[in-house]
Amino acid sequence: MLSRRQFLNITGSASIGLLTPSCHKQPLKSSSAHIVIIGGGFGGATAAKTIKKLDPTIQVTLIEPNSHYISCPGSNWVFADFKKIHSLVFNYSTLSRLYHVNVIHQVANHIDPKKQSITLNNQQEIHYDRLIISPGIDFQWNNISGHNASTSHLIPHAWKAGQQTILLNNQIKNMRNGGTVIICAPPNPFRCPPGPYERASMIAHYLKRHKPRSKILILDHKSQFSKQTLFIAGWKKYYGYGTSNSLIEWHSMPDNPIINIDVKKKILESDFGDKFTADVINYIPPQKAGNIAFSTGLCDDTGWCPVTHQTSESTIHPKIHVIGDASTHSPLPKSAFAANAEAKTCAFSIVNILNNQPLLEPTWINTCYSLLTEDQGISVAMVYKLNSKGKIYKVEGAGGISKKTDKQSLSYEATYAKQWLKNITLDSFF
Ligand SMILES: Cc1cc2nc3c(=O)[nH]c(=O)nc-3n(C[C@H](O)[C@H](O)[C@H](O)COP(=O)(O)OP(=O)(O)OC[C@H]3O[C@@H](n4cnc5c(N)ncnc54)[C@H](O)[C@@H]3O)c2cc1C
């Protein structure tokens, strides 16, 4: 059994990615194995740290182009003016100093699954015994005309935090009172299912105080969305939802999606020819796994990487494990919490494989918090296990959405949301 101390060491204060059965009855053996991790986000950073904590003799290399990581969780709060983007920036110095992870700031250009090697941007070739990739998402631009990656400096997606977040925030701050912000919410599956609706809430929180004659239109690819009843109740309470003065309107358009954007005139056109004029457009494109997963042939025709759920090993290329947003761990959502949990179960699996130990039966937890105002929040939580066929299922009766919606309970949820952000970043990067 894991001792309480070992357990806390691995799961951290956020209690993420629980692993239940008897493991590590014997001390781990030394290993000269080399594990390479591509992508230093929530998934990759957590995997690197966890492997080193489980077996410090394993050589771990983390490949990440950027010297700093900017967290998407918390980035919607920038629009409401109570979070600064610089407070969401983390570096890799603890991973290299404390855990002795070899961090290389390069792009992984090419993976050769047969040779078990990776070629970096600088042409360096690196051999791996096991590879973990956590490259996050990239965007599908092919179902929209008039807008693509190169015009996203005019029409920001802000779905990768950093410059894009600052750009969208500046556009909202410079908008006239009485202006219209249009958020185009993507089809499923996508990174952070409640994200577009929390974003609408945070922008509304700002507009209510500074530009109250303005409006937010959410043009949605979907007929329903995450925590819908809680969001709608909150929008009614705080932003006049359903009245003629509502700050937020939600338009469900699954059969009539936006297919064209006139970037200069800021006009969006739907499949049936409906036109929407905006002052600010936040088009969040449909998504797929990060490009390196595609060029390595790790994706199926869904655009995501199928994996064996117990180990996160690719069902296409052995010895390559895919975690985080790029992978299909459904019904786990594409969230930082899930990426962190998948990283831990994957790390345990790899360390056990290398040490000839039996595989574990993992349990995952995910909670997604969202803010309605600066100090009112809501959440959805779920516990997941493996069934006898090796597929992930939701444990019935565990989790659910916020039950109490009185002011005090929503205020607690907002506090939990802010504490969760601290915990998950500590647990992943420190
Ligand atoms: C606005 C917003 C709010 C969100 N809020 C929440 C929240 O409250 N709670 C929550 O749980 N989740 C939230 N999320 C989702 C969360 O950000 C993602 O699910 C999480 O970042 C996924 O982690 P990842 O490791 O898969 O990818 P990422 O964190 O995106 O990391 C991928 C890393 O891979 C690197 N990379 C990519 N390609 C290569 C390559 N070829 N070579 C080397 N490195 C490469 C990138 O530079 C990047 O650092 C939010 C997302 C958004 C957009």
What is this entry, summarized?
The protein is of the alpha/beta class and 430 residues long. Helix content is 26%, strand content 26%.
Describe what you observe in this structure.
With 430 residues, this protein is an alpha/beta fold. The protein has 2 domains: 4-138 and 288-429, FAD/NAD(P)-binding domain (3-Layer(bba) Sandwich); 141-285, 3-Layer(bba) Sandwich (FAD/NAD(P)-binding domain). 26% of the residues lie in helices and 26% in strands. The protein contains 9 helices and 26 strands. The strands form 8 sheets. The chain has a 5-stranded parallel sheet, covered by helices on one side. A 4-stranded parallel sheet has the order 13-12-11-17, covered by helices on one side. Strands 23, 24, 25 and 26 form a 4-stranded antiparallel sheet that branches. Strand 15 (267-270) and strand 16 form a beta hairpin. Helix 2 (42-54) packs across helix 9 and helix 5 runs parallel beside helix 6. It is globular and about 65 Å long. The two termini are 26 Å apart. Residues 38-44, 63-66, 69, 72-73, 75-76, 107-108, 134-136, 159, 191-192, 195, 290, 292, 324-326, 334-337, 339, 368-369 line the site of flavin-adenine dinucleotide.
